[in-house]
Design goal:
Radius of gyration: 22 Å
Number of helices: 9
Distance between the termini: 54 Å
Low-confidence stretches: 52-60, 72-90, 95-117
Helix content: 25-40%
Number of strands: 19
Strand order of the largest sheet: 1-4-5-7-8-11-12
Number of domains: 3
Shape: globular
Mean pLDDT: 77
CATH topology of the largest domain: Jelly Rolls
C-alpha cells in the first residue's frame, strides 16, 4: 500500500473514532511534517463531515459514483480508495457527492462555503484540530472549539475570524490586512504574530508568544508583548496586562503539562478542562503549593497519582467529584 493511501486509511479511522493512541500519534507527527499535510487534513475532514450531512437527501447511485470516483483518483489525488468495507459507506457517499459537483476537493469546499451563508466553519470535537486559513495562517483549535470566516476572507480590508472556545494562532504577516479575531465582546487585532486566545462565559484570555497583539473591548484597547497576557472578565470595563507566568495553555498542542513553578490551582483548572473532571482542592493550604514537573496526559488517574506523590496529599473520589486534601 502506498504512503498516501496508508495515511488516508488512518484519517478515515480517525474520523470514525476507531484510531488507536499510536495511530493518533502517527497522524499528529504527519501533520507537523509540512503545511501541505495540515491543509490536506482540513479538506479531508470537511469532505468527510459535510458529505454525511449532504448525503441524507442524496439520490445518487453510490456504487456507480464510487466507480467513477476511483477512476478519477488515478488522475487526481483527491483521496485514496479505502479498501476496508466497514469504512466504505461514508467514504463512498463522499465520493458520490464529489462526482455530483464534478470537481475535486477544492471545488467541493467552495460549494460548502456557499451553502453555509458564505461562511466556512471549522470545528473540533474530542481532539485538537490544526487548520490552515486561506492566507496561510495556521490555527490550532482546542477541543470543543470552532472558528468561522467569510469565503472572501482574503478580499477585505481585514482578515476576520470569529472564535468560540480556545485556539492558538500563528498569523502570516500582512501589514496591509490586519488579522482580527472576534470572541465574546473582545476584539484581538494583529499584523503577524503567534498567540493563544481562550474564551468562555466568564472571561476572555489572550497570551502572546511572539510579536505584538492589540486587545480591545468597547472603546478601550491595550497592546501586549511576548510572555504577557490580558484577562478580560465579562463585566470588566478596564484592560490590564500581566506577565504570563506558565506554559500550561500549550497543553493541547504539546499533549503534556509542563509545570515550572506552577500554582496547584492553575494546574487543577487545566486538568478539569481536558478531562471534563471536577477536581476540588479541599485543604486551603494546598492552594499555595507550587509544582515543578511534566505530566504526559496519559490519564487523569496517572496525573493525580503524580500530584499526590509530589505533595504527599490524599486524592479522594466522592461521587462525581475528586477531592485533594
Amino acid at each position: 500500500m502506498e504512503a498516501n493511501e496508508m495515511m488516508d486509511d488512518l484519517l478515515v479511522k480517525l474520523m470514525l473514532g476507531e484510531a488507536t493512541e499510536e495511530e493518533h500519534k502517527r497522524v499528529t507527527e504527519w501533520l507537523k511534517e509540512k503545511p501541505e499535510n495540515e491543509r490536506y487534513y482540513a479538506h479531508f475532514r470537511l469532505i468527510w463531515s459535510q458529505s454525511k450531512e449532504l448525503a441524507v437527501n442524496s439520490t445518487v447511485d453510490e456504487n456507480e459514483a464510487w466507480k467513477r470516483f476511483k477512476v478519477r483518483t488515478d488522475k487526481e489525488p483527491v483521496a485514496a480508495v479505502v479498501p476496508l468495507n466497514k469504512w466504505r459507506s461514508w467514504y463512498s457517499i463522499a465520493a458520490a457527492i464529489l462526482v455530483l459537483v464534478g470537481v475535486g476537493g477544492v471545488g467541493y469546499l467552495a460549494m460548502i462555503k456557499k451553502s453555509a451563508s458564505e461562511y466556512l466553519t471549522v470545528k473540533s470535537d474530542a481532539r485538537a484540530v490544526v487548520d490552515t486559513l486561506p492566507d496561510g495562517s495556521v490555527v490550532t483549535l482546542n477541543r470543543r472549539s470552532s472558528i468561522a470566516y467569510s469565503e472572501d476572507f482574503n478580499d477585505g480590508e481585514t482578515r476576520a475570524v470569529t472564535l468560540t472556545g480556545e485556539a492558538f494562532f500563528d498569523v502570516k504577516p500582512d501589514k496591509s490586512k490586519p488579522f482580527v479575531i472576534k470572541i465574546n465582546d473582545v476584539t484581538v487585532r494583529v499584523l503577524g504574530t503567534s498567540f493563544n486566545v481562550k474564551g468562555n462565559d466568564r472571561q476572555t484570555e489572550v497570551i502572546v508568544e511572539t510579536g505584538r497583539v492589540e486587545v480591545g473591548k468597547a472603546d478601550k484597547t491595550i497592546q501586549i508583548n511576548p510572555q504577557e497576557k490580558v484577562t478580560v472578565g465579562k463585566d470588566d470595563m478596564e484592560l490590564e496586562k500581566e506577565t504570563s507566568n506558565n506554559d500550561l495553555y500549550k497543553y493541547y498542542r504539546t499533549n503534556e503539562f509542563v509545570c515550572k513553578d506552577v500554582n496547584l490551582p492553575d494546574l487543577v483548572e487545566r486538568l478539569n478542562e481536558i478531562y471534563q473532571a471536577k477536581i476540588v482542592i479541599e485543604n486551603e493550604k494546598l492552594k499555595n503549593l507550587r509544582i515543578n514537573t511534566t505530566l504526559r496526559q496519559k490519564s487523569l488517574s496517572t496525573d493525580l497519582h503524580v500530584i499526590g506523590q509530589t505533595f504527599d496529599i490524599k486524592v479522594e473520589y466522592r461521587g462525581d467529584s475528586i477531592v485533594l486534601k
